[in-house]
Amino acid sequence: MKKIQKLxxxxxxxxxxxxxxxxxxNYLADLNISHKDKKAAAIxxxxxxxxxxxSQMHKEETKRxxxxxxxxxxxxxxxxxxxxxxxxxxxxxxxxKYLFIEEYDLKMQDYLYIRRLFSRxxxxxxxxKILSMREVKDLDEIKLLQxxxxxxxxxxxxxxxxxxxxxxxxxxxxxxxxxIICSIHKLEDAEPSxxxxxxTGANSAHPHHKSGSTKISQGVLLIDLGVRYKGYCGDxxxxxxxxxxxxxxxxxxxxxxxxxxxxxxxxxxxxxFWDLEKKAREDLSRHKLEQYFTHSLGHGIGMQIHExxxxxxxxxxxxxxxxxxxxxxxxxYKTEKYGIRLEDAFWVKKHKxxxxxxxxxxxxxxx
Length: 367
Description:
- The protein is of the alpha+beta class.
- The chain folds into 2 domains: 2-135, Creatinase/prolidase N-terminal domain (Creatine Amidinohydrolase, Chain A, domain 1); 139-355, Creatine Amidinohydrolase, CATH 3.90.230.
- Helices cover 33% and strands 22% of the residues.
- It has 10 helices and 19 strands.
- The strands form 5 sheets. It has a 6-stranded mixed sheet, with helices on both faces.
- The chain starts with a helix and ends in a 12-residue tail after the last strand.
């Protein structure tokens, strides 16, 4: 309720906020509706009233939500004879003249439709108000993220055992990715944070490789996976070597490992994400490897696998905020040879960062 009351404080009597982004609805109402169910619910906020709107399919879950336990909240179940937007129109108070909408959540088709449907109301962009709220986590959210990361590590451990037992059967990247997804679905209150990446050999040099029919054999093996637990995402990457690596790989692995340790050690509220990336790139440049790092150093993580804070030059003057959770994932990608990426999630505190959960930074764990 406090989160919504904070939004209400800025509203005039003739203004309202419509929350249609299912992730933000889950966040404000403490729900766990699948991100695929785009129009399963909505929240309409006025200066004095809060309407929690639910589809027929999700009405029981919505009734049990923390938000619905407040006497200040009015629960509305969508009528079957009306579409999503018509149901919202039915409950919009007559006094509302300005409606703030989540512009990033709407397709042009929806925007044009509601502009006609709500013809007496002026539509205004809400901007990043809720995204900014979500950036800073409370202790309950931190605990859920820690649990998600611990489960992610558990699945990685199971995956390495699966590979050890089945490598002689010539299993493929796709076989291993399927095993990861199957293992996650066996966990309670869990689903994959994203489609896992299993990349072997030269495929590991493509940061967003799609797991395919390449057989896992001697050489580099990169695994990037995550468990979403009760709506909160885990994210972890490790690079392994099956067999005996050459000196070039061992040197590059050590460089990536040191960058991860150094940058995470400097992650606190006195620096920006961009400053951390600059330091990482400076270290790579000293080894003449900066050209092989082809993505940003990391990203915020929470109810979405990528969320605020983002690591970009445009945010160079924005310091990391206390109680944000970020990933740090330096990498080296040598086309036609191999890629090395190591990634962990960190809880940013005032003077330091805390790793959410720990898994060895070693390449020799498959055998």
